[in-house]
UniProtKB/TrEMBL annotation:
Segments for region (Disordered): 79-108
Domain SANT: 116-162
Protein family per UniProt: Belongs to the SNF2/RAD54 helicase family. ISWI subfamily.
Basic and acidic residues bias spans: 89-98
Biological classification of the source: Eukaryota, Metazoa, Chordata, Craniata, Vertebrata
Biological process per Gene Ontology, one example term: nucleosome organization
Protein name stated in the entry: SMCA1 protein
Keyword Cell inner membrane: no
Species this protein is from: Semnornis frantzii
InterPro entries (alphabetical): Homeodomain-like_sf, ISWI_HAND-dom, ISWI_HAND-dom_sf, SANT/Myb, SANT_dom
GO cellular component terms attached to this protein's record: chromatin; nucleus
Coiled-coil region(s): none
Compartment list: Nucleus
Length: 162
């Protein structure tokens, strides 16, 4: 056969590479930027719901946060998602403007209340406790204590007493 009869194979077609990520990022982006979170004072204790701190502690921490925002001159931004945004903004700003620092009695009370929660319980312990309660029932403390790793039966009894 001669060279004239040879049929060349077609050139390899390349896949089109579209910038889909950029398109979807732009398409799914919310038109309004989110309202930035209000600043929190440094050295705030990390408190979780499952640690069962007294409600009074949350009041004192809120008071402390409001006063911190007052000291740094924080202004509450208007949230466009709320129907009565201006009123909510004024109320929140009023709380900040009228806030006072914790007095010595309140500071001592806060320190005392911080010792009353279950600070040695973490989310994993709590979830194990819940699963064991589902499995054995609320009254079978011995089996529940065996399921919760790293906690003595006394600790589990104290925790389940709440």
């Amino acid at each position: 056969l001669s060279m004239m009869e040879w049929i060349e194979p077609p050139k390899r077609e390349r896949k089109a590479n579209y910038a889909v990520d950029a398109y979807f990022r732009e398409a799914l982006r919310v038109s309004e930027p989110k309202v930035p979170k209000a600043p929190r004072p440094p050295k705030q204790p990390n408190i979780q719901d499952f640690q069962f701190f007294p409600p009074r502690l949350f009041e004192l921490l809120e008071k402390e946060i409001l006063y911190y925002r007052k000291t740094i001159g924080y202004k509450v931004p208007r949230n466009p998602d709320l129907p009565n945004a201006a009123q909510v903004q004024k109320e929140e700003q009023k709380k900040i403007d009228e806030s006072m620092p914790l007095n010595t009695e309140e500071t001592e009370e806060k320190e005392k209340l911080l010792t009353q929660g279950f600070t040695n319980w973490n989310k994993r312990d709590f979830n194990q406790f819940i699963k064991a309660n589902e499995k054995y029932g609320r009254d079978d403390i011995d089996n529940i204590a065996r399921e919760v790793e790293g906690k003595s039966p006394e600790e589990v009894i104290e925790y389940s007493g709440l």
